[in-house]
TrEMBL record:
Protein keywords: Coiled coil
A molecular-function term among this protein's GO annotations: SNAP receptor activity
Biased composition (Basic and acidic residues): 118-132
A biological-process GO annotation: retrograde vesicle-mediated transport, Golgi to endoplasmic reticulum
GO cellular component: endoplasmic reticulum; SNARE complex
Taxonomy, superkingdom: Eukaryota
Region: Disordered, residue numbers: 114-135
Lineage of producing organism: Eukaryota, Metazoa, Cnidaria, Anthozoa, Octocorallia
Species in which this protein is naturally found: Paramuricea clavata (Red gorgonian)
Name this polypeptide is given: Vesicle transport SEC20
Coiled-coil zones: 32-70
């Protein structure tokens, strides 16, 4: 069997390191049970690592295509295929881990909602008061903005009316004079 070129060995080490990182994050995803934000952060990290892994695999594939020896080319192609299979398997495991974590988060949130502890109710009320205050502030700002827009539209209409009356009144007099053939102007 042919020996792999040094540059391909380095690339394979990088790929294996990325696979280990992705696998660790998949395991971390499986253990998330309370925070959707945490799940989203891990999800983003995994997606970035998977993109990086794909780039490294493409680079390794390119190295294999550039090989003069057919045996080196075949060996590198086998490595690329093996790692693509690993990638596919990791993506499936990641989807399963996300599903499991989302179910755990939903159960946790449901139990929090159903909990009859007064402390939690107070916390939820405080959160809702803060949310209401923010909503009220936002609504007030929007109403003020709408009022300013309406005021500018009314002013623009007044200006248009003044301009029209300024020019249409004399035009009306001229038209009446032409129709009656005499003008009192």
């Amino acid at each position: 069997m042919a020996e792999l070129p040094p540059q391909s060995k380095v690339k394979i080490r990088e790929i294996v390191q990325l696979e280990i990182e992705v696998t660790a994050l998949i395991q971390e995803t499986t253990n998330i049970s309370e925070s959707q934000d945490e799940l989203n952060q891990v999800n983003t990290k995994v997606k970035k690592l998977i993109q990086s892994l794909r780039r490294k695999l493409e680079e390794l594939k390119q190295i294999g295509e550039e090989q003069d020896k057919e045996s080196s080319h075949v060996k590198i192609t086998e490595e690329v295929d093996k790692h693509y299979y690993n990638l596919s398997s990791m993506q499936g495991n990641f989807r399963k881990a996300i599903t499991k974590a989302q179910i755990s988060i939903e159960k946790y949130e449901k139990s929090q909602l159903m909990s009859a502890e007064p402390k939690n109710e107070l916390r939820h009320r405080q959160q809702s008061k803060e949310g209401l205050a923010k909503s009220a502030s936002s609504i007030t700002e929007n109403l003020m903005s709408i009022a300013k827009m309406m005021e500018s539209q009314v002013q623009q209409s007044r200006n248009n009316t003044e301009v029209l009356s300024k020019y249409l009144l004399p035009l009306g007099v001229i038209l009446m004079c032409e129709k009656n053939q005499h003008c009192l102007a």
